[in-house]
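From the pipeline queue, job 12 of 40. The input is one protein chain; the requested action is below.

Action: predict structure.
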Amino acid sequence: MKILVTLAWRNLFRNVRRTLASLFTVALGASGLLIYQGFNAGIMNQYRENTIHGYYGHGEVYAEGYYNKVHEKPWKLWLENQDQLEIKLKKIPQILEVFPRISFYAFLVKGDINLGGRGEGIHPGREGLFFNQMNFIEGNEIKSANEIILGKGLAHSLGAKVGDTVTVLSQTLTGQLNGADFIVAGIFHMGQKSIDDIFFRIPLAEAQKLLNTDRIEKFSLSITSVKDWPLVEKQVKALDLKLDPISFDILDKAYYQNSVDFLEAQFGFIRTIILIIVALGIFNTIAVSLLERSGEIGALRANGESRKRLFTILFIENLILGTIGGVVGILIALLIEKTFLSSGIPMPPGPGITRSFLIFLEIQPIHFVNALLLPAVTAGLAGIWPIFKILKKSIPDLLRAT
């Protein structure tokens, strides 16, 4: 086998023009495959980080049986003993921070404008450090107990700006009307119109006063890594506190998970097209080169070389060509990433998003493996039929084709 590999390797240098043509075809396919994989991963990871650091965190913890169900009186399933729960959750090594929250519906009044909105009581001191994708277009995060931040669309409809006073009217859990005045501290947009048009936030303690409760609806979590969620989920359930941890990809399934599934399916289709183009290019180049080498192959057959041995040499030759082409393609892709695409690729707003963003290539180790192996295998397979066809010819026919 070593001799056959050596012969195949030397054959690559017998006609440099022919070898370079084949190499160029494979390298273009490999670099295209690698760049597209990195682009795809960049989109998905960018969207994932926006989802995690914009609203959900790495996941949320509810009372058992609360999430994704309609309840007549949902507050009866809200979590009690917030401080004790926080202490127990923070004992899990992978949990870095917990964010207690309450969501509720309320009317916001400014002057003679009265609009419905969805409010959320948060812990401002903790949230501002982790949820850094809220994109304040005016003002900043809540810093005192009487401040409120508004979604861009909601603020526009109210005609509110930073420093204005807005009254929040809501019902206590026992059905009594309650209200409080807040000063607008900031106006944000999260890139999702469905949130920006109705969403506002106030301090958790003020929200509890409005609703007349000391319970919280849920905890959002910051953990060490997305990959650690299964471990966190297992440990939260092991606390035996009847808690239900839900990961961010389930919480945002309509946008994040569906987008990931869509892009994965799209990538599979485009990868197939790229490999077909590579295979056709290799097939054409190899077929032409084999015709040019008919006399050489005929001479080898006349000297006693068997069809099997020649087939093996030519097949190995194509595999080597495909592998080298893959390596060159990877180098080309890295060069493009570090030069032309180093500043990112500007993208228009995606489905359900209202802001544009930059995508950076995120080439991962498995992408290098794909860019190296798939073109090599494709080059090897693409050469089988033309090799088989040329070797079926008789020795006189091969020699006459010189």
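Job complete. The longest strand covers residues 95-110.
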